Amino acid sequence: MPEELVNFLPCKTPTAWIQRALEEPEILLIDHAHCEKKAAATALNLMFRYVDDVDLLNKMSHLAREELRHFEKVLALMTKRGIQYQALSASRYAAKMRAGARTHEPARLVDILVIGAFIEARSCERFHALSPYLDEELRTFYLSLLASESRHFKDYLTLAEKTNGGAIDDRVAHFGAIEKEAIESGDDVFRFHSGTPVTS
């Protein structure tokens, strides 16, 4: 787990979430597939909205292709394990983060990019947190994703700083507080980015 990711995130994944993930392996993989697809869609949406930023276009094009390859790999794993891909309701995580974004440009883009960095960083942290408890095939797969997701994290942060024209510490702190609350507070829906499970 890269140290910069550990330092960036405001908290660790709760042990209760890891325990729930091990009890819900099918939901974990199905939602992971959804997350990869949504990540690709986010990158494409940014490409369509911000057509005059060549650096953003190149980075998001590469990111979208990579996320779609990850989506295909998760689907292949699911098929091998007899897990049917299906629709799932979204977790509250991304909605909570986006609710904190500013609405005027270029501030909106800065915030969307910072949110993207948090999503990628949290994904890496959860791959790493789960890996000691998984079977060899799934552990190897999750750890293989760390390098690319870590690169996506860096790309989002670099673009955010460039768009902002300098440091983004205040926005990282702003969304870090939102992220911490989303991860540590009780959550009655289990998903890849959900909060602390609430037992019924």
Give a brief outline of the structure.
The protein is mainly alpha-helical.
Notes on the protein architecture:
- With 200 residues, the protein is mainly alpha-helical.
- The chain has eight helices and two strands; from the N terminus they run ααααααααββ.
- The chain has a two-stranded parallel ribbon.
- Helix 3 packs antiparallel against helix 4 and helix 4 (54-80) runs antiparallel to helix 7.
- The mean pLDDT is 95.
Shape: globular
CATH topology: Ferritin
Helix content range = over 70%
Uncertain residue segments: none
Distance between the termini: 33 Å
**Overall average pLDDT:** 95
Strands of the largest sheet, in order across it?
1-2
Using DSSP, what is the number of strands? 2
Task: Specify Rg, calculated over alpha carbons.
Answer: 16 Å
CATH architecture: Up-down Bundle
N-to-C order of helices and strands: HHHHHHHHEE
At the first level of CATH, what is the class? Mainly Alpha
Q: Structural class, from secondary structure content?
A: mainly alpha
Major sheet characteristics? 2 strands, parallel
How many DSSP H or I helices?
8
Instruction: Indicate how many domains the architecture comprises.
Output: 1
Strand content bin: under 5%
The CATH homologous superfamily: Ferritin, core subunit, four-helix bundle
What labels describe this entry?
200 residues; mainly alpha; Ferritin; two-stranded parallel sheet; 2 strands
